[in-house]
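Course assignment 3, question 2. Fill in each field.
Student: A.L.
Task: Predict the tertiary structure for the chain below.
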Amino acid sequence: MAQTKVEDGIHVERLELANTEDPQKPTFTRTHADELSIWQSLRQNKLLALIAMAAAFSASLEGYQINLNGGLVSNKGFIRQMASPGTKIIKGKYVSAWGGIQSAGQTIGQIIALYVIWVVLVVSVLIECFATHWYHWLVAKLFAGMGVGMLQSTLPLYLAEISPTQLKGLFINAYTFWFVLGQLFASVALNRLHISAPYDFRTPIYSQWAMIGVSAIIFVFLPETPWYLVSKGKLDQAKKVLTKMHGRKQGYDSQEQVDLMMSTIASERAAAEQNSELGPWAVFQGKNLLRFIIAAWPKITQQLVGLTVFNTYATYFFQKAGNKDPFLVTLILSCVQLISMIMTAVSTDKLGRRPLTVYPYAITVLSLLSLGIVGCFDYSKPALSSLLIFFACLATFSTTGASAIGYAYAAEIPQQRLRARTTAFALAFSNMVAIMFSFTTPLMINGDAQWGVKTGFFFAGTGAVAVVICWFILPEVACRTPAEIDEMFEKKVNLRKFKQYSPSSY
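Answer field:
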């Protein structure tokens, strides 16, 4: 059933289970378990839901890091320690370098063992604990970016591969749910310190060790994904993992699931050989290039609609906007993100990926345009300051849910055999855009340009272009199996008509 082979110097396990009449077509595309409703599947997979939530917990450290990075630049003690002598605000070029180097580290990240990710994050926090100069913080952000990048490339993919078809959106969104909670934790910690100990910036750094410790315990007990095991020919192990995660509930057949995985992978490899889409650059060949663009575009769009302004530099942004309590604003934005994330998580499998991506991003663009207009007036006045916060909250609400679904697109759209590689490249390209904006956004707000709130005009323009592209290229893949998605791409189904397509085989 399995045969070892070497392709382009890469060891693979060649699986022999495909349609004998048409090797590119899987023998079947769905199992009986895939026919359950969303609610039925959730009731039957309570243990799996617990595993997914536990696995995604480490994303809270990512969210904590990002808000900590943006919040500490306004902390009086941090400024006193890191700013140039005789000044009371950190220069925009330093803030730009810290944010940019963190995003640069994300593009370096590869899908490595979760233990390596954990070690890199430990190194990052250690350096932060002992940092006394701005360049120490720069190195810490490099390691943080590497760890976060590897985490982004690994965990959404892991969640997608352990998820039932009907619950992929919910489980993948668990990653962003914990990410948002991490941001909220950081906002609360920074807000309390701002009130009680405005010069204390070490305590929130030390608090990261709690999340580091819990993540280590979780990583030790996580099972390997069945899709990975099947791709390596470890069929018995895959069946055992499926049985352990799903139990022996009525109507579930772990062997049927393994057969579908084998059929899908074998068909993909047969098509790849026929179309000469092999080797390390197969991601950018033939139909895989289109699938890569689709997988990457939602996360790229989140950068083009100004995620950096509200996510990484929210406190810094509102400080420059003249708000008297920027930490409270960040706390409010974190709560808005949490509400948005909960609503997105429970609706993404029911309403679909496409509408919950395109329309919220369009709302973000309109909000940014409104922010730019507010920036043309004296927004330090109470009325306009409140309006500024309203549009910022609206942009944050709409962007949070849409950007979370970006992980679902990155994990679901690629072929199974190229899923890890495509996801890594997709997120790397997104982070390349993040590098640019992480460096330039502080300079727009606080640099020589002194755009301030008018920065909204810039991101409204770039965001509008990105949303139009989203409308034309993003397909609907909610509740679709990998085999069905493969079939639709092979048959060149109109991307905007994926939802109406009926698979030819079961």
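Instructor remarks: The chain has a mean pLDDT of 78. The domain at 27-500 is CATH 1.20.1250.20 (Growth Hormone; Chain: A;).
Grade: pending
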